[in-house]
Design brief:
The structure holds two protein chains of two kinds. Chain A is built from nine helices and seven strands; from the N terminus they run ααααββααββααββαβ. Chain A has helices at about 20-25, 40-45, 65-85, 90-105, 155-160, 165, 195-200, 205-215, 235-250, and strands at about 130-135, 140, 175, 185, 220, 225-230, 255-260. In chain A, strands 1, 3, 5, 6 and 7 form a five-stranded mixed sheet that branches. A two-stranded antiparallel ribbon of chain A has the order 2-4. In chain A, helix 3 (about 65-85) packs antiparallel against helix 4 (about 90-105). Chain B has helices at about 10-15, 40-55, and strands spanning about 1-10, 20-25, 60-65. The termini of chain B are far apart. The chains are: A alpha/beta, B alpha/beta. Strand 7 of chain A pairs parallel with strand 1 (about 1-10) of chain B.
């Protein structure tokens, strides 16, 4: 247990009128005797679908208390360096390394262990192949909402709040024409920080980059439909049933290659 | 039908455990496996490296790592 007192005092604006962004945040206090105590472990847990849910850092509870403290201290140190360098590169690298360390810190369950590989040799070079795209990024065409739990236009926040229900729900595959414009494709996924995908769908559903590769002859052609689903779904139905059905669906496209992009 | 998978480093252990046929691992954060938003050059670099494995991998379970760093702000589009 670390004696870290964390209290929500309300908008900083009431204390110090700075930027609008800072005003929208809350502050930490180590002085208010009325504040409830909160351990580092509780703080880390709050990032994982708790009151401070932050899907980029939901891995933090995977560390022990000392590890959480070390991670926070390292990030603060890099932020301190930013005052002088102005270069966020080291902070970004650290955050990515912490993600790696967090997710690699626990062994995978048996369901993810396979003894062999389904290796298919290509019949022709990629430059002559039709390529299909399948991602678990949670993209769908605007107006064709997969409507999880029968809800249309569920927000990202709602999806995060209902993550435990998503993990019990059978997956649904969305079909996305590869000539879709960015503003005609939406993304919603309660399992990861979708902000990058919202800004540019190509970070996880690279339909525009793939079309450029098609245009430039790097690939023979791109199958006209890309496929996406919410990877945070019931895993056993995916492994035992839906995956086979989707494989048959992809085979029916007569594509030579499938590019898989899990997020 | 040949497959190739792009993972971020945080989940690369899945590729190893599952003996996926061909995997490219990127040093990118979760949710951005292809690269930073707007960085078309990086996104393309990753895709070409991944698809290149279809031509070059001669055995199952190949896991390659692409170099470079994740640096948003390079709006090459």
């Amino acid at each position: 247990m670390v004696g870290w007192f964390v209290a929500r005092l309300g908008p900083v604006e009431t204390l110090c009128p700075v930027s609008e962004r800072v005003a929208a945040t809350t502050v930490l206090s180590m002085t208010d005797p009325e504040s409830p105590t909160e351990s580092l472990d509780q703080f880390a847990q709050s990032l994982s679908y708790g009151e401070r849910s932050d899907l980029s850092f939901k891995f933090l509870p995977r560390f022990d208390t000392a590890g959480i403290g070390d991670a926070l201290a390292a990030m603060l140190s890099e932020i301190g360096s930013l005052f002088d360098t102005g270069d966020p590169g080291a902070l970004i690298d650290l955050a990515i390394e912490l993600q790696r360390a967090g997710y690699h810190s626990r062994p995978l369950t048996e369901r993810y262990h396979y003894e062999d590989s389904a290796f298919t040799r290509p019949e022709r070079p990629v430059a002559e192949s039709q390529v299909a795209l399948l991602t678990s990024s949670g993209h769908f065409v605007a107006g064709d909402d997969p409507q999880p739990f029968g809800i249309d236009s569920m927000t990202q926040s709602e999806a995060e709040a209902r993550i435990s229900e998503f993990l019990k729900e059978a997956p649904s595959l969305s079909e996305i024409p590869v000539d879709s414009t960015s503003d005609s494709v939406e993304v919603r996924h309660g399992g990861y920080d979708t902000r990058g995908s919202v800004t540019d769908l190509n970070v996880s559903l690279p339909i525009h980059r793939m079309r450029e590769l098609e245009r430039d002859g790097v690939i023979g052609s791109l199958h006209s439909t890309a496929y996406s689903f919410v990877g945070a779904c019931a895993q056993l139905p995916l492994i035992k049933k839906t995956g086979y059905e989707w494989a048959d669906q992809l085979v029916a496209t007569e594509s030579d290659v499938v590019l898989l992009v899990p997020v | 039908m040949a497959t190739v998978t792009v993972f971020v480093e945080a989940f690369s252990h899945y590729a190893k455990a599952m003996h996926l046929p061909r995997t490219l691992v990127t040093p990118h954060p979760m949710g951005r496996p292809l690269g930073p938003p707007g960085d078309t050059a990086r996104q393309r670099e990753v895709l070409e490296a991944a698809l290149g494995l279809v031509d070059t991998a001669d055995r199952p379970g190949v896991i390659e790592r692409i170099g470079g760093v994740y640096r948003p702000g390079a709006t090459s589009s």
